[in-house]
Amino acid sequence: MLELRLLQGSLLKKVLESIKDLVTEANFDCSATGFSLQAMDSSHVALVALLLRSEGFEHFRCDRNISMGMKLVNMAMMLKCAGNDDIITIKADDGGDTVTFMFESPNQDKIADFEMKLMNIDSEHLGIPEAEYQAIVRMPSSEFARICKDLSTIGDTVIISVTKEGVKFSTKGDIGTANIVCRQNATVDKPEDAIIIEMKEPVSLTFALRYMNSFTKATPLANIVTISLSSELPVVVEYKIAEMGYIRFYLAPKIEE
Amino acid sequence: HCLQSRISDYFSRD
Lengths: 257, 14
Fold this sequence. Notes:
The structure holds 2 protein chains of 2 kinds.
Chain A: E1 2-6, H1 9-19, E2 25-31, E3 34-40, E4 46-53, E5 59-62, E6 66-71, H2 72-79, E7 87-92, E8 98-104, E9 111-117, E10 126-127, E11 135-140, H3 141-152, E12 157-163, E13 166-173, E14 176-182, E15 196-199, E16 203-208, H4 209-215, E17 224-229, E18 235-241, E19 245-251, E20 254-256
Antiparallel strand pairs in A: 1-5, 1-7, 2-3, 2-6, 3-4, 4-19, 7-8, 8-9, 11-15, 11-17, 12-13, 12-16, 13-14, 17-18, 18-19
Helix pairs in contact in A: 1-2, 3-4
Chain B: E1 2-4, E2 12-13
């Protein structure tokens, strides 16, 4: 038996909106730790890892570890039927082939349940080792989204370079080139407006902007985005989910032929 | 010219 009650149902709505175009179907895993997912896009270039910790739920009952295969567009469609202020409860029976999403309005005057068929998904789970990154950039998530959107009007790829000068986002296309440099800016009035760059060594990597733009759909989840770069690893674009966990996007770089 | 690498080039199956 599984029963997870999330007071801030809008979080789950936002999570689905941020991943449904990147990943078609995925297994949601539930254990004492929480509600999690790891999935790759169809071309295996990007990977998303989601964790919503059990402590973040108002009620969390998961009698045994369970993996539920869902088609994400269908799940997103059902969650769109929940109001932004609704409490969402996810329910499933052990060994069942359906999951139920229950939506309660804040004053309890409307209760809806939507039952969705589960599917069997053969997905490989990858081990993601803890790594030391050469550079970590923390910046307002809206600023990062703006940069990715602006650059994709010029080119298809972005070169992200971190030096002691700051972080530079560059692109090149048929009509010309673009460079956006953000300098460390820790002394702002609001901490969420700060750009903080931790650099151990300079690093420069090239990525497909199409994926970066897809990751920025998670912007409504967090004011701050953390971008971790290392020359030997996929970039990690992380959005923390208030008090609950995170959504991390991993993107394999483009490499010189 | 740049080639797109894949996640499995970096992370292996659990």
